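Q: Structure tokens for this one, please.
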Amino acid sequence: MVEILAIVVSMLAFGFSLFSYIQTREMKKRENNCDKINTALQMARYYMEEIIPELSRISSEIKRNKDVDNIINRIKAQQAKLFTQEEISSIFDKEADREKLKEFFSTFVHHDLCNKLEYFSMAFIQNVADDDVVYQSLHQTFLYIVLMLYFPIANENTYLKEHEKRFSNLRQLFLRWNERQYNEGEEHTQRIQDNSTRVKTKRT
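A: Here is the predicted structure, written as tokens:
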């Protein structure tokens, strides 16, 4: 009888310890998620206060130079993946276009904006903030800015080894959000096609 009671007590103690462990783990997970959400909200505020004004400035500067504006507007988001010299030559296949961009960005102050974008991106790439919180609100302008700055970012990293390349978090977040936007577009197109097929089937 004493042995059975000891076993029961041991099992209860084990069960209680397991329950406490699970509860503690879940609590920490919830706290961690809350921290990530709060950090994401802080980064969204930083984006609105520090990056959006810079977007207006750089956009105005580029639009004042019609040649550069036309060249940059030809970039397709799905082309920008590696940020290398080879990719630059592929996207801007005319040497005259590359020279115009090089001349424009040699006198155009963009490093401060790139640094701010890198700081913003770091929180999400390093998993300190939850990018699901801000994606819908910010991804379009973010992708737009990075595409505008694609040439100087890629050109600056041309002669650096992979571990030396700058703006790595910026590039990773661009690729992540760009792929997500592309996939969402494909899913939306597929839903429209499926709905259209169902409507045609009902009519027949």
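A few notes: The two ends are 77 Å apart (CA to CA). Residues 2-64 form the longest helix (63 residues).
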